[in-house]
Each structure stands twice: as structure tokens, then as C-alpha cells.
Amino acid sequence: MTAGLSMAAVSISKTLRKLHRGNWALQSLPKRYAPTPSSSSFSSSAPAISSSSPNSSSPSSSQSLEKPRGRWTRWLLFTPAAITFGLGTWQIFRRQEKIKMLEYRRLRLDMEPVQLNNLVPLSEKSDSLEFRRVVCKGVFDENKSIYVGPRSRSISGVTENGYYIITPLMPIPDDPESVQSPVLVNRGWVPRSWRDKSLDVSRDIVQPSNMKHSSVQESERHSWWRFWAKKPRDIEDQIHAAASVEVVGVVRSGEKPSIFVPANDPSSFQWFYVDVPAIAHACGLSESATYIEDINENINPSNPYPVPKDANTLVHSSVMPQDHLNYTLTWYSLSAAVTYMAFKRLMPKKSRR
């Protein structure tokens, strides 16, 4: 029994010595002859370690960064649709305002005309007098006429350029029915040739008329025949009575120019729009003078100019309610089209996910 155990111990010791010698031989070999490790676990784990290096980004982190950007992009796609929808809604409100404005003008123009002297001054209640038909009597001071334009007028399909003529209507002395203060009257449209001719005539008459008036005053002052001094005044009164006119017009407050209309230049007699205070100042009148537009339909065939304004043009606007309705439909159609395009753009992204 003991002999068997000793034999087993001897064989175990021999085996350990052989293993020890084998390990020492492997360690003593050069590195180029050393066998390469064939452990698959270490080699397979190396790529996993390298893939988790800080220089490379994982797909989960990139997806988390793209999510908030995608949300903002979705909202931006619907921004044009929201803008066009807002413009269409704004056109609805503008249409309602335009209907009320034109209806107010119709009601004012349907009223019977009243004497201008019976109304309060325009400077006190301009809103209450706007588009009110009035009757006024006086004498036109042709030498102070102002031409505003150019303004085009279409006759039988032919467009002709011209101007609006604005002339002060002066009071008649000792006439209670005439205006008490000067009034600016837009007498209507005149052609360009008529304007040029009137300007040439007025320039030729201004200086001789002033000289004649001064000579008459000088003769009245130095003459000792006083009964001759009353004769020119009587003749002047007769001329005023013969030249007196009755104007049926509408009280207005001037024009509001657009950004494309040039500024008025009174020094060179260039008037592009009706600026009532500036025109009154150029005519030597008070800046609070009343301004009316002649709408008298009784035109003398022998003297067709100036052509008064048509009353129907006062209840007409450059953009009518029907135009606002067309704009509304256009903006809403664009909004629907842009919304459809936005949904069309987002649908493929949802299907891929």
C-alpha cells in the first residue's frame, strides 16, 4: 500500500518537473517565435472597446440631437400657411370697413344741399361736414387758379392727360347770399392745352391789370370831380354781379398721397395732390379755408371746360368690397395649398420611422 503511494508521488513529481521545464522553454524563446494568442474573447472585445472611444458618436446620441431639430422644422413649415391665413382674415375686416364707409358716403350725398353760410366752419367740425352737399355763391378769382395734376381722363376709350383746376370763390360785396369768406373750389378737369393757354394769358394780364388798377386809384385820389370817382366802382359792381356763379359741390378735406406721388413744389407751381392748407396759403387765403368739389351736372356745351366731377366717383374706391372678397379667397387658397405641401413633406418621415 505504501509502495503504491510512493510510486504515485514519484510520477506526479516527474510530471510537474516536465511542465516547469516546458514553461521555462516558452519564456526563453524570442518574441518573433512566440505563438500568437488565439483567445477569441479578448480579440472580440477589442473592437467593442475601440467603438466606445470618445471620438466616435453613438447612434442613440445622434438621434436624440435630431429630435428637437425636427420639431422646430415642422413648425417652420406651417409658418407661411399661418401668414397667408392671417392676411385673408384681415381682408374680411377691411371689406366690412369699406362697405360701411361707402354706405356713409351714399347717405350724405343723398341729402338735400344746404347753404354753406348756414354750416359751421370746416375747422370746427370737419368730420360732420365731410361729403355734405352745399350751395355757395360768389365770384371766381381766375388769376389765383391752381392746377393739380397731371390727371388722366378717358373719353370713348381715348385717354387724355389734364389737370384739376382749383379757383378761390370770393365773396360778393353787399350780397348776403354770397359766401362770407373765400372758398377753394375744385371746378373739375381741364386738358393740358387749356391749362397752358390759361397760364400764358394770366401772366400777360397780371402786370397790365395791376397798373390799370393803380392808375384808377391815383385818378380817384387827385381828381376834384368826385362824381366821376363813383363811376368805376359802379362798373366794378356790375362786373361782379354779372360774373357771380352759384356752385353746388361737396365738402372735402383734401387728398392723401401715396408714397409714389412726388411732393408739391409751390415755388415752381407744381401741385401733384390736393393739400388744402398749402393751396390756401399759396392763394393768399387762410389755411382753414373750406374746400369743396364741384359736382354740378349742368355743363354749357359752348364752354365744356372745366368738367365737374361725377358724384358717382365719390362713392367709388380704388379697392371695392368685391375686390377685398377676391383677395380673401386668394389668400385662403394659398394657405390651404401651403398647408397641404407641409403635410406632404412630413408624411414620408413618419412612414420611415
Kindly estimate the percentage of residues that lie in beta strands according to DSSP. Answer: 15-25%
Number of strands: 7
Helix content: 40-55%
Cα shape: elongated
Instruction: Trace the largest sheet across and list its strands.
Output: 2-4-5-7-6
Distance between the termini: 79 Å
Largest sheet: 5 strands, mixed, barrel
SS element count, helices: 9
Poorly predicted residue ranges: 36-57, 208-232
Q: What is the subunit organization of this protein?
A: single chain
Broad structural category: alpha+beta
Overview of the structural elements:
The chain is α+β, with helices and mostly antiparallel strands. Helices cover 51% and strands 16% of the residues. It has a 5-stranded mixed barrel with strand order 2-4-5-7-6. 16% of the residues are buried.
List the helices and strands and how they pair.
Blueprint: H1 2-28, H2 40-51, H3 59-77, H4 79-109, E1 114-115, H5 126-129, E2 133-140, E3 146-155, E4 158-170, E5 183-191, H6 192-222, H7 226-243, E6 245-252, H8 276-282, E7 290-294, H9 321-352
Parallel strand pairs: 1-2, 5-7
Antiparallel strand pairs: 2-4, 2-6, 3-4, 4-5, 6-7
